[in-house]
Amino acid sequence: xLGIDTRSAKAAWTxxxxxxxxxxxxxxxxxxxxxxxxxxxxxxxxxLVRIVERYKPRLIPRAAIVAIVFLFLIALAVxxxxxxxxxxxxxxxxxxxxxxxLLDVAKVSERIPLPRxxxxxxxxxxxxxxxxVQAGASQAVPFAQRLGVGVxxxxxxxxxxxxxxxxxxxxxxxxxxxxxxxxxxxxxxxxKLWGRIAGDLDLLLAGFVRALLLLSLATFISYxxxxxxxxxxxxxxxxxxxxxxxxxxxxGPLAAIGVLLVVLGFAGFEHLLWVFFFILAYxxxxxxxxxxxxxxxxxxxxxxxxxxxxxxxxxxxxxAGIFLxxxxxxxxxxxxxxxxxxxxxxxxxxxxxxxxxxxxxEPR
Length: 364
Known about the structure:
The protein is 81% helix and 0% strand. By secondary structure, it is mainly alpha-helical.
């Protein structure tokens, strides 16, 4: 009709809708990030809700159980802040006061500890470092300005710290009904497919979020305890910084190592080499034992895809994009696997052999 190809028109309309949806998601990316963080927080709280529900009387509604769990977590956060927050705040204040003295160019070369075999090379090494510092000074100022703007932007959005728990409360309370209503939008066969996908994504996100929390706690305890036993300054502050950076895949742990070594080196800590050996031992234990064990719940992504996802996430959404890159790639993988399984079951076509041995395994 009128010389318009129906198939081409449908394809063009599909592409237009896809581009429009992507543009809409990019426009509301801040709101979307808040929703995603609320979902992650809900996955942290939900196991406690299930434990309490097992022993609750039948007359108590689900909303009351969720409220009790949230009140318990608020009380736990207050107690933890009273135990560690004041000391970390004192160490941060002391570091800010000592920072001008630590950055004194005239004395910093004498204060940084070096092994004995490197002492004859101290002056050359210090001269090289000073040249690099002076060369990068022009770039440091714009970076500091951007960092300050980012900090002010975060401080102006502190309302999200209240909004995220509220949204998490509503998600836990209404989660089962929302999932049921979503599946009712599809036909019976498609409903089964999306039900399996929803179940796999549920296992994926639950395992990912809990693994990040446990890895962060392990980092805080290990770093703080080891630095305290070695007599290092700012032990709790550096341990807390490393724990927070643990939530950023790949880049965060490297940044934590750099911050820790630089602060202790400028502070003149004598056992810096032992700190370095401890970091190597701990990263080996976490990266090859703890992380693979905790991330085994469906988070099976090839290292190459992780690196590509980190780079793409940084360009799209900065720190938030880096944080979300791994679960997004894992979720896309799950959807692809389930759709492929449904297609092969419908057509009877053979399933192509996967590249890696774990790509054809069912998420647990």
